[in-house]
Design a protein that fits this description.
globular, 13 helices, 7-stranded antiparallel sheet, alpha+beta
Length: 383
C-alpha cells in the first residue's frame, strides 16, 4: 500500500492575548529529542514548532501519531501558559517573532527581508510516496487542477492582527508574496521540472529547490510528491482527511484530462482563499467553472476507485460531509469565526486548545536520541 507522511506546523500563542510567543528556554530541545511515534522539529520562527509522522499506510496509524504528537506539544505549551495553535495564522500579532538559529533559516531570512516580520504562518504538508521519478512529475500535474478545491476545504486562517480578514485562508495570501508560489506550471518530464526550478535559482528568486513555495512540488529529500496547499488544520481528523485525499489524487492516473494553465489555477486559488466553500473554482475534469461544493463532489467521484482500494472511502465521505455541514461543523475558518462570534477570544482560545489537548498525567520526559540531532536540511518556512 502506498505510504504517506504528514507534517503539521504550530504556533505557540499566549493563552490570553493569542499573540505568538517564543518557546521557553529548553522547551524546544526537550521536545525535539523525542524519537518514537513521529518526530518534533524546530521551524522557521522561535514561536513555531513542527510535528512529523513516520511513513504510514493507513489513516488510523496517521491519526494515532498525530494525537500523540499534539498531546506532547500541548503539554509543553500549557507549562508556559500558551496554546500550541494549529491555525494557518495567529489571531493577533506583535510582529516580534525571531528567526530560529539555523544557517538555512539565515539564508531564507535574508531572502525574505521585511516579509519575515509577518510571515507567521502554519501549513499542513502531505508527502505521498511515488518511487518512479517520471511518475512523480505526472502525479504533480494530476494534483495541480484540484489545488483550488483542496484549499476551499482546508481554509483555516480567517484572522490577522485581531481582525477578520474576510478570507478563509489569509495564510495563502501571505504565501502568494513569495516567488515560486501557488500553482506550478505544467512540466513535460523530470528534466523540464528540474530546468524550471533551476531558472528560479539562477534568478536568485529562491535559494534552492527546498525553498520552493509551490502548493505542490516534488520533494528534494524523499521519493514523494509533497502537497502543500493546506492551512494547518484544527484537528488530527482533518489533517488525515487532507492526506487521504492527496494520496488518492496522486494515485488516480486515469483522470479526465483538461489543459489548465497556472494562471487559471492561481485565480481559482485566490477565490478559494477568499470564500472557502462558497467559492467558484475551476473543475479540472472539464475546464469549466463551478461552485466549490460541486467540484468537491466531482473530485470525490473521480478518486472513488482509489479510495475504495485503499480502504479510505468511509473516512473521506464522513470527513467531507463534516466540512460541508453547517451548525457545529464546517471548515476551520468557519469554526474559528463561529467561536469568536459566540464567545470572543475566550471562545477561540478554547477551540484552538482543544486541537492540542494536554494529557493527564503529563507525558514522560523524552529519551535522548543515541544518534544525536537530525542533520537533514531544514524545510522551507513557506508554510
Amino acid at each position: 500500500m502506498t505510504r504517506f507522511g504528514i507534517e503539521e506546523e504550530f504556533l505557540f500563542l499566549d493563552e490570553h492575548s493569542l499573540v505568538p510567543v517564543a518557546l521557553a528556554a529548553g522547551t524546544r530541545e526537550r521536545i525535539t529529542r523525542l524519537r518514537t511515534g513521529g518526530e518534533v522539529t524546530k521551524e522557521y520562527l522561535t514561536s513555531q514548532i513542527e510535528c512529523l509522522t513516520e511513513p504510514v499506510s493507513t489513516g488510523a496509524d496517521a491519526e494515532a501519531q498525530l494525537r500523540h504528537l499534539r498531546e506532547l506539544i500541548g503539554w509543553h505549551a500549557q507549562e508556559q501558559q500558551a496554546i500550541a495553535a494549529s491555525s494557518g495564522t495567529p489571531f493577533a500579532t506583535t510582529r516580534s517573532s525571531a528567526v530560529s538559529p539555523s544557517p538555512h533559516y539565515d539564508v531564507v531570512a535574508e531572502q525574505l527581508g521585511h516579509l519575515t516580520r509577518d510571515h507567521e504562518v502554519n501549513g499542513l504538508h502531505v508527502h505521498v510516496e511515488v518511487l518512479d521519478d517520471e511518475e512523480r512529475v505526472r502525479a504533480l500535474d494530476r494534483v495541480r487542477g484540484w489545488l483550488p478545491v483542496l484549499l476551499a476545504l482546508a481554509g483555516n486562517s480567517p484572522f490577522v492582527e485581531g481582525r477578520d480578514t474576510s478570507f478563509a485562508s489569509w495564510r495563502s495570501i501571505l504565501i502568494r508574496r513569495l516567488p515560486g508560489s501557488w500553482s506550478p506550471p505544467h512540466f513535460r518530464d523530470l528534466a523540464d521540472y528540474r530546468a524550471g526550478v533551476q531558472r528560479l535559482i539562477d534568478l536568485r528568486a529562491i535559494a534552492d529547490a527546498a525553498s520552493l513555495s509551490w502548493a505542490v512540488r516534488i520533494s528534494e529529500r524523499y521519493p514523494t510528491v509533497e502537497v502543500r496547499v493546506f492551512d494547518a488544520q484544527l484537528t488530527p481528523e482533518e489533517s488525515v482527511l487532507a492526506a487521504l485525499l492527496s494520496r488518492a489524487i496522486v494515485l488516480t492516473d486515469d483522470q479526465p484530462p483538461a489543459a489548465i494553465g497556472a494562471d487559471v489555477i492561481d485565480a481559482s486559488l485566490w477565490t478559494a482563499a477568499r470564500r472557502g466553500m462558497d467559492a467558484r473554482v475551476i473543475d479540472p475534469t472539464t475546464g469549466e467553472i463551478d461552485d466549490a461544493r460541486t467540484v468537491a463532489e466531482r473530485m470525490q467521484a473521480v478518486i472513488a476507485p482509489a479510495l475504495r482500494e485503499l480502504g479510505d472511502e468511509e473516512w473521506v465521505s464522513d470527513g467531507l460531509a463534516r466540512l460541508r455541514a453547517e451548525g457545529t461543523d464546517g471548515t476551520g475558518a468557519t469554526r474559528q469565526r463561529r467561536s469568536v462570534e459566540q464567545d470572543g477570544m475566550a471562545g477561540l482560545a478554547r477551540l484552538l486548545r482543544a486541537g492540542t489537548p494536554a494529557p493527564h498525567p503529563a507525558p514522560p520526559a523524552p529519551r535522548p536520541d543515541p544518534h544525536g540531532e537530525r542533520q537533514e536540511p531544514a524545510p522551507t518556512p513557506a508554510a
